[in-house]
Design a protein that fits this description.
By secondary structure, this protein is an alpha/beta fold. The chain folds into 3 domains: 3-25 and 143-228, Glucose Oxidase, domain 1; 38-137, PtsI, HPr-binding domain (Enzyme I, Chain A, domain 2); 245-505, Phosphoenolpyruvate-binding domains (TIM Barrel), CATH 3.20.20. 42% of the residues lie in helices and 14% in strands. It contains 18 helices and 16 strands. It has helices at 38-61, 65-78, 81-91, 97-112, 119-137, 160-163, 183-190, 253-259, 285-298, 338-359, 373-386, 398-401, 418-426, 444-459, 474-483, 495-503, 507-518, 523-535, and strands at residues 3-6, 8-10, 15-21, 151-155, 170-175, 195-197, 210-214, 219-222, 245-250, 267-271, 304-307, 363-367, 390-395, 413-416, 463-466, 487-491. It starts with a strand and ends with a helix.
Length: 537
Amino acid sequence: MSQVLSGLGVGLNAVVAEVFQVAPAAALPAWAKSAAGVEAESTALKTAIASVAADLARLGSAADETTAEIFEALTYLLEDESLFDMAVAHMDEGWSAGAAYGMAVNEFAEMLAGDAAFEERIADLQDLSKRVQASIAGIHVGLDLPQTGAYVIVGEDFSPADTAQFTPAVVGVITVKGGPTSHTAIICRSRSIPAVVSVAHADEIQAGTSVLVDPVGDRIVIGASLDEATKPLEFANTGRDPLVEVRANIGSLDDAEAAAKTGAVGVGLFRTELLYLNESSQPSIERQRDLYASILAAAPAGPITVRTIDAGSDKPVPFLNMPEEENPALGVRGYRLIQDHRSFIEDQLKGLEAARVATGREIWVMAPMIATVQEAAEFAALARSLGSFKVGIMVETPSIAALIPDLEGVVDFVSVGTNDLSQYLFAADRMNPSLGALLNPWQPGLIRTLERIASQAKAAGIYSSVCGESASDPAFAVLLAGLGFSSVSASRSQVDAVRAALSAVDESQAVALAKSVLAAKSAEDTKSAAVAALSAL
């Protein structure tokens, strides 16, 4: 019998290839004090930071858009002045540049420990710390991957800088750590590389062993053939309109142009914060108008739903000068920025209105991290006073999910962000491998919460949508339609697959599927019920 290792799958395609175990990075020098003096050590640190930043820029220039955007955010963390000042304080105590920077990063990580959304950034920052220390010590930190052949690479986890070094020989990825929203998962998904993350004991697989990477089955099977892979559901293109509208998720001009080549009916999630990650000063209304107008003009025909800035937590924006928080994911992020940055939120809405007028596009605006009806009403009043928008909110907190009936007459629509809703609903750290199962969208607790949101929104006359990662799964999209949502919004690469699935079913079939799934009591049972119902069509 073949040995099976369970994990969390990324992608719909399977692959069989030999394992290439990625060697751990060389050990860094032990931290020690230095007699060179603060000036010399701080100069050495500045040089190392500049070298690592140059490496990130080089890798980013040759990477896909998703990876390049991640590098931009990492560079901001790397060049953070407060972090440098923390390191200098340790140099004043006599520590070397490498030791001082490592200590500063550890202190920073301790301040953010326990925060579900920032945990992944802590891992990134620790990776940057290792690279800075290695640069000071003259140690090579490249992956040294094979250039030819076909291999499934195995490692504890891979940072964005690691994934940018993947060669054409990398046909599959296995990690011991990581979760469904880790950078490894995001980048593998964007590059269509089959992966399974959070696989305990994967580092014990012998190099050269043939393995089946079976993401649909959430498993690794040693010695298995491709014929044994779990088959993804396939939906024939019926030519019919999908049961509900399928929109696209975008974050840039490239995304908008790519989405326009799909069957997307407009945009269900425009992540505006990606436009601000490298802005050192607050952009003018005119600059924002021009940025938005170019993207709105390129986006697929249909309504464009714009999420106002979701800065904070793991998305720092330089010009906002946000203070450090003990638990950023539960702190001032999303709409809560209006407390201290009202002028920016107002300018963003003004820029969007100017772009709407310039392009003639239909714009819906929604605020993230809304927790109360009062917050929803305040945002709705502000948005309507500054533009001709349909106005809505993101449903990401359990508190607002319980108050949908009270939003009647307050907002025009709601859009569920399943990533954040899941982590807050289950109190599950996204980067903790032992909690990965709680972030599975097939969890009954999430599905029954989604059913209540959809049914209560319909009763209140509120348009409802789902724009989280789960809506990019064709089978889950059919479930969402059966639960009663008005539309779904998928990643641009999945739009047509989701449309095909929603074109293959009628309303009665989707509702029957939803009923069978709602009766299940475990994530395995809910997914099995959905697959059985769809396979029978």
